[in-house]
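Lest this sound abstract, we think one record worth quoting, the chain in one-letter code, the fold tokenised, each line plainly labelled:

>
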Amino acid sequence: MKMQSKNVRFGSMLAALLITSSVIAASAAELNRDADETMKVFNEEISGGDVFINQAAGYLVFPRVIKVGIGVGGETGEGVLRVGGQTVDYYRTTSGSIGFQLGAQAKSIVIAFMTKESLQKFRNSQGWKVGVDGSVALIDLGAGKTIDTDNIRDPVVGFVFGSKGLMYNLTLEGSKFSKLDKSE
């Protein structure tokens, strides 16, 4: 039992160290530039995704979210909240996990708030957590699939794309979003 506890602590510390060294805080200008590039890729890769963005009250863009795991995993990234196509705030996403995992992964995330109420609830929170403060309907875009926008009525819709690395995990459950101060 003691050895297992030491392994979990070691794995936690190593995962935290790897994530911290992988994700260096970006300036507001860098985040906006990266978010613009991510949205270009999103529109190229996600057929029908622009319908969600055009109808959304607001949307989060996380250009690069890094996940590292060695028994214990951690995930983090910084992004922007856009309303009316303009950046209004900056956010960090974080989550942790325990279980069999080994590797690292980078991915992009876009989350669309389809109603003013869902956007307002998100913006008024002191750290919005998926599965606790609200749910996010993830759009599965396997090979050859397209989005059927007529059947999706969820107030918050998420897209995970551009996954690169040795670990694959298509979930946002347990992810926490916290507002950042990026005043320049």
